[in-house]
């Protein structure tokens, strides 16, 4: 039995109940492949599905959610949606700041 259902546009969406981190990793990988091919709209859809699953499993402020949101930002930039890309990257910074050690010399 397949773990997804084909959507009208883009990669298939995970079936309800398939909120598993392994599935989110697969969507993330699909997004990376599509982005590398220049298919930014399709990549964004895959990243959005990965983020949806990761958020359900891990919450909104986890590093894996931040990583996927960062990838969404790159896809948005590829689409020329620079304000949306900036907002995505700012969200990533906010999440990373939750986990950053202020005494770490790599933290500016």
TrEMBL record:
<protein>
    <recommendedName>
        <fullName>Tetratricopeptide repeat protein</fullName>
    </recommendedName>
</protein>
<dbReference type="InterPro" id="IPR011990">
    <property type="entry name" value="TPR-like_helical_dom_sf"/>
</dbReference>
<dbReference type="InterPro" id="IPR019734">
    <property type="entry name" value="TPR_rpt"/>
</dbReference>
<dbReference type="Pfam" id="PF13424">
    <property type="entry name" value="TPR_12"/>
</dbReference>
């Amino acid at each position: 039995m397949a773990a997804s259902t084909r959507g009208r546009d883009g990669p298939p969406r995970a079936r309800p109940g398939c909120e598993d981190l392994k599935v989110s990793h697969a969507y993330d990988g699909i997004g990376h492949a599509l982005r590398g091919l220049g298919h930014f709209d399709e990549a964004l859809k895959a990243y959005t599905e990965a983020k949806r699953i990761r958020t359900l499993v891990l919450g909104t402020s986890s590093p894996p959610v931040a990583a996927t949101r960062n990838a969404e930002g790159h896809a948005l930039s590829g689409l020329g949606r620079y304000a949306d890309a900036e907002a995505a990257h700012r969200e990533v910074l906010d999440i990373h700041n939750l986990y950053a050690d202020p005494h770490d010399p790599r933290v500016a």
